[in-house]
Amino acid sequence: MPSYRRPWLLGLALLAAVLLRLIAIDYGLPNTFNADEPHLVNTAVAFGGGSLSPYSFKYPTLWPYLLFFCYGLFFVLWSGFGFLHTVTQFIGLYAWQPTAFYLIGRILSAAFSLAALYWLARLEADEHPAGTLKPWPWAALLLAFCPVLIELAHSCKPDSLMFFWVCAGWYWALRIYQKGSSRAYWWCGLSLGLGLSSQYTAAPTLLLLPLAHLLSRLKPKPWKAFGQGAAAAVLGFLAGSPYVLLDFPKFWTSVSEMNYLYLFSDGDQGAVRRTILFNMATFAGEGSLAIVFVLGGLGLLLRRDPRKALLLFAPIAAYFAVLAHNPDGGWMRYLAGCFPGLALLASEGLRSLAGRRKTFIAAAALTLAPGVVFCSLYVRDLRLPDTRTLVEGWIKTNVPAGSVILLDLPHTGPRLDMTQEQSQELWHRTEAAGSPRARLFKAMAATHPGGGYRLYRIQRSAKDLWTAPRLVSRSQADSDSLDLRGGLDLARAARVEYVVLSGFGAGPERAPELTSFFSELSREGELVMEFLPEPGRIYGASMRVYRLRRP
User: How would you classify the pairing of strands 525-531 and 543-548?
Assistant: First the structure.
């Protein structure tokens, strides 16, 4: 283990990084306010039906497989090895009280987010001669307080797992560059393959293996070791996502569906490129000096070790090139795979000031502090009351059980239970259609807790949801959704009594095809309750509850 200067300060920083990932990790539950979490949890739970083939390749499968394994352990303990509870009751637990399923995934995300920092700290420790006091691992510290990584650590999504494997890939790539051992080739390829099997956004990091091989000063080049590393990358990817190969037609269909982004895009790729550059500049938090030291570190390396500079910078450039041609490329989390390169360059820049103590301390503070502040504010907001749960409480108190309620998507509004009768109807309908969700609705009907409401969902377009049309149609076919493009008539025909609208859901701007519905609702419906977010006091979206007047 390396000996760091002032280890107690480093220990406090590590403790803060842990707390920022664990505080509020249960936010919202049992509500699912993160729109992507249910897809991944549903996929993992569906594997319990007997097939490990995913119903969609929107994500690779290493993360759902890991969740499925953990859910299996959870079932064994929760059910007392099958003696206390049945599989049907377990499915019912997932349907009516899903907190544990999401919390398991979020704890895993937080753990992988922290474990990823080990690779960067180890890499920076290896950069210095043995037997000396090590300077702090600045790259690891920057990413310990990276706002988007803190956000991802609070979600049951694969990004933190991908980040862990990618950081390992960066470590082993630099080992190849410096020493070139066969072991480094193997682990680099395997890590990068597992990263890609966690999240497709790891794809540009695959450049690390050939770059490290070509840029290393080893002569002759160990091409056999490179071939082993490339084979390990393929093995890692297929080990985590075997059905990419076993059911390639389905995989290719899912990939082809991603073309919807280009159909829905307004074609302004200049705005996407500016957003990507802004995201790179603010990866350590808006206002951080990290980008200044990234550029400074790159300049220093170009003079001192241009090959290493190219190894660190080329994957970053590859991320920009790939995302700049993707209409959806402006999301900060898509850049997580290049964060280690940015952080390592920033570390090089910071270390150049180490000889000027006061300047160095000020620079380090101005580099780290914005990330710490943004992360703290984010965690604080997660602990605030949420308008969606406030609406849920109001409805359960003021709206009689059995009432008919129209809602938007689950993550945009309150969590309400459907009636047992509706569960049975959905069971029989999905069973007749051959839907895999029939088993879920059957268990829901068998384990119904009582009460509930008849729930309908506003039917949203694929363009409005910015997702593949086939995914939208499959999802809506398994639920009670209403096509309201013609106005309120269909809602009245379905005997809807209350309508709940959310600022995070559909609106005239996002869904112009529903303009008639919104105008008629505001004109003919009675606004009975409104909940609005307040900075520092109430989190969430603006929520409005309307009561429909009978004609």
Answer: antiparallel
What is the DSSP code string of 120-143? HHHHHHHTS-TTSPBPP-HHHHHH
How far from chain centre, in Å, is Cα 18?
Answer: 19
User: Which has the closest alpha carbon to 451: 478, 423, 480?
Assistant: 423
Q: Which of 297, 347, 322 is nearest to 137 (CA)?
A: 347
Give percent above pLDDT 90 in the chain.
69
The DSSP-derived string for 260-297 is HHHHH--S-HHHHHHHHHHHHHTTT-TT-SHHHHHHHH
Which three-class secondary structure state does DSSP give residue 538?
strand
Tell me: cis bond preceding 436? Omega within 30 of 0 counts: no
> Stretch 39-56: mean pLDDT, rounded?
89
pLDDT tens-place string over residues 193-235: 999 999 999 999 999 999 999 999 888 889 999 999 999 999 9
> 185, 203, 184, 178: which is closest to 193 by C-alpha?
203
Q: Is the pLDDT of residue 547 over 90?
A: yes
CA distance 238 to 437: 27
H or E element at residue 67: helix 62-78
In DSSP notation, 173-240 reads HHHHHHT--HHHHHHHHHHHHHHHHH-GGGGGGGGHHHHHHHHS--SS--HHHHHHHHHHHHHHHHHH
What is the model's pLDDT at position 30? 93
* Residues across the chain: 551
SS3 per-residue string spanning 13-54: HHHHHHHHHHCCCCCCCCCCCCCCHHHHHHHHHHHHHCCCCC
Bigger pLDDT: 55 vs 333: 333
Structure tokens at 442: 């059957």
Place of tokens 């922290």: 114
Q: Are 546 and 499 in contact (CB under 8 A)?
A: yes
CA dihedral 183, 185, 188, 191 (to 10 degrees): -70
**CA dist list (Å): 527 to 147, 313, 392, 521:** 38, 55, 16, 9
Q: How far apart are CA 4 and CA 396, in angstroms?
A: 56
Instruction: Return the DSSP state at 504.
Output: T
Q: What are 412's two structure tokens?
A: 């945009």
- Asked if 41 and 156 touch (Cβ cutoff 8 Å), the reply is yes
**Angle ∠(72,74,75) on CA atoms, nearest 5:** 65
Look at phi and psi of residue 267 and say left if phi exceeds 0, alpha if psi is from -120 to 50, else beta. left
Give 3-state DSSP helix, strand, coil % of the chain, rounded to 5. Answer: 65, 5, 30
Q: How far apart are the first and last CA of the chain?
A: 76
pLDDT digits (tens, 9 = 90+) for 329-358: 889 999 999 999 999 999 999 888 877 888
Q: Is the pLDDT of residue 132 over 60?
A: no
